[in-house]
Structures are given as structure tokens and as C-alpha cells.
Amino acid sequence: MDPPRNQTLARVVASAELSYEAIAKGVQAVANASGNSAIRTSKSNVSYWVGGKEPNPDTARYLCEFLSRKVGRPLTLLDLGFNSPGAHSGEANLGLTVEDDPVETLGRIGRADIERRDFLTRAAYSVAAAALPLGVAGEAQARTAHALAGGVAGAAEVAAVRDMVAMFTAIDERHGGQHGRSTVVQYLTDDVRRLCQARFETDDLRKEMFSAAGSLAYLAGWKAYDASEHGLAQRYYLQAFNLARSAENRADQAYVLRILAHHGMDNGRPEHVLGLANAALELSRGVDPATESLFVICRARALAESGQQAEARREAERARELALRGETAEMMGWATMWGTPKATVDSHTAKIYARLGDYAAAEVHHAGARKRYASTEHQRIAALSAAAEGGAQLKQGQIEAACATWDKALDTMTGIRSSRTVKSVRAMRADLAPFRTRGARSALELDERARTWLRQAV
């Protein structure tokens, strides 16, 4: 007997005002953006789902995210009329909140991450969740930590966590996000979670521990992002924000809002990025010029994404002036761990100009970022800056220059384990394809080297 028609899903599909073919293509796009290229959908599949047959769990979650974007409100699997066990478990929405206890939530996320649970590692970037921090950003009152048993934690324990975060971050920046990833998650969900649940000598020390834990959750999110697991990265970032609220630390909150804005832009989802960038800038008021430049350049990039070109250029110039005027030694909070502000401003300014189609200016700023990062421990971003610089050169028809720059990028990528470097090398090969067919020697030689690099890296 055929299952009964899914009237609930049929109503949502009707409200989205999309054809079955458009929905199928949309689900496919969300799956591909989530790194799950194995998903295949067609208008016949959508017809089957409306007819009462349920898709597999991964496909159901991608359908849910796609329809949420189209109807303009967050939907759950139950809202689509699905009755599989996964629809009732709540797993699909784990971490997509800034209201639950962040320590407990991170413990659950971390365990699922270590176990490589598909509902997280293949999760889609949630547009609805991106807006969650905007409703609570800057709240002065944090929730009281749960009453906890065990020993008393003090300044030494806070310092130990901060030292570990600094060490893990340095390894990440030099060798890529996949080095030590499971160790970071295990440390977060075991030792640090227990420290956050300890009793503290003072309330200020409790806040400092939550701030340190938040910086580690941020790093776990960054590592997931570097593996192109964007739904998982978003959950870690949201819990880092949640911990920053618990620590009542405005600078930490601002820094997470900033990365959430960049994360939305990097995912091609601009819906909330300007709001996030504006909220981050507002929370950061009073910081030193070098730190402020990071928030101003984030807003500049968000303005470019929203089509406000003139203001984007003005803000980018303001960020450059702040970075030049500031001193790295004055920087505050988590911002101190991620490279010089001058290099960061150069990198994002290049992305702004590329977005605006000014590839000559993008090339200049990518080169500036590459040179500034080259003399530091930030090997991955130096390599990615070189790769982007070569791409800007190719856009201008400079094939020989692009190949020479990409050759340097491949040199720098040696020993780095990162999904982003793999994607950039694949993009190189795709861009070189027209020149290979014409027999351009520089393109043929570089493509062979890139092909060899990929074979060894993947």
C-alpha cells in the first residue's frame, strides 16, 4: 500500500512557490555546498516525497534548509511532515541555538564530531541560525553557570587553557586545520568542559575560564570550516558566542560575530552578514585601532556583498588607516592569535575588490597579504593568498605571471592539511584548462605539478 500523501510538505512547497525541478536543484546545491556530492535529486524525487515517501536523512536535512531559505523562516523536519526517528531526535538542530547551556551543548557536539556523525559532518549552513546572535548581541547579563561539583579552579587552570589554545592555533595556522583536529575537540569536550563545570575561586575567574573555553570552541569551528564542514563550523561558532556571553566579554562576542559574518560571505549566503558585521563593530567600540581594523574591514566586505560599492571602498580605506596606525602589541582578546591586522586587512580588501570586479586592485592586495604573512607562522593563509593572487592575475590575462605565482603557492602548501588548499589547487587546474588545450607550456607544466600535488594531498 502506498503511503498517504504528505500534505504538510505539500503546503510548504506551495508556499515556497517553486517547481519540483527548482526544489530538486536547490537541494542539490545545498548538498554540494555542504561537501556532500553523493546526493542526487530530481523533480521525480520531490514528487515522491510529497506523495508520502521520505528521503534519506541527509537529503531531508538539505531539503529542510533549502525550504527554510525560500519561505523565510526556520523549518524542522517535523514541519515538513517527516516522521523518521531523526525527525524526533533533535539531532539535526544540535548547536543551532544561543540559549542552551553552551558547556553541555559543546560536549554533545564534540562527541558527535569525534564519532564523525553524518548529521553534523554533512550538515548544511543554516541561514536562519546565522541571525540568532543578532537578537542577543551585547546583552550585559550572562546566564549563571550550572551548579557544579568537583575541585576549585583558579588562575592557573585558566592560564593552562589559554596556553593550550595558543599552541593549537599556531599548529593550525602553520600546518592546516586537519593537524590535531581530534585532539582539539577531545580537549574541549573533556578537560575544558570539566573545568567550566568546576567551582571557581571568584566569579571573575569563572568568566575568564568561559572566555578561554570560547576561544577553543572558536578554534574547533575554524578547523571544521577548514575541512569544508560548514554546518558543523557554524554550530561551534554559535557556542563560542554563547560562552562569550556567559563570560560577559564584549570583545569576545564581537570577534565571534565577525567570524559569523565572514562565514556567511564565504558560503555565499549574504542574508545576515551586514547585520552581523554592524553588531560586531558596535560591540567592539573602545578597542585599540589595530583590533578595530578587523571589524571595519569585515563591515566593508559585507557592504560590498550587499552592493554598496562606494561605502565598501571607504570602509576598506578606513580599515587600512586603522591597521597602519595601530600596534599589534595593543591588540585585545582572541584577535591576537590570528596574524597581523595589516595582513588581514589586505586579504579582505582583496576579496572586496575581486567582488567588485577590480582584479588589478585585488592582485595588489592579495600580494600585500602574501608578503606580510610570508614572514610569519601563518603558512596556510600565505599559500591561499598566493593562490588568490594568481587567480587575479589570470583574470587580467597574465597567464605567465599567474603560473609563476601559483608555483610559489604550491611551494608554500607543502605539508599543509587543509580542504581549502585542496579546493584552491583544484580551482587552479580548472582555470588552466583553456590554456592547456591551447598547448601553453607554462600552463601544461603547472597543471602537471598541481595534479601531482593533489594526488599526494587527497
Automatic annotation (TrEMBL):
Species for this entry: Streptomyces virginiae (Streptomyces cinnamonensis)
UniProt-listed InterPro entries: TPR-like_helical_dom_sf (IPR011990)
Gene3D superfamilies in the record: Tetratricopeptide repeat domain
Protein name in the entry: Tat pathway signal protein
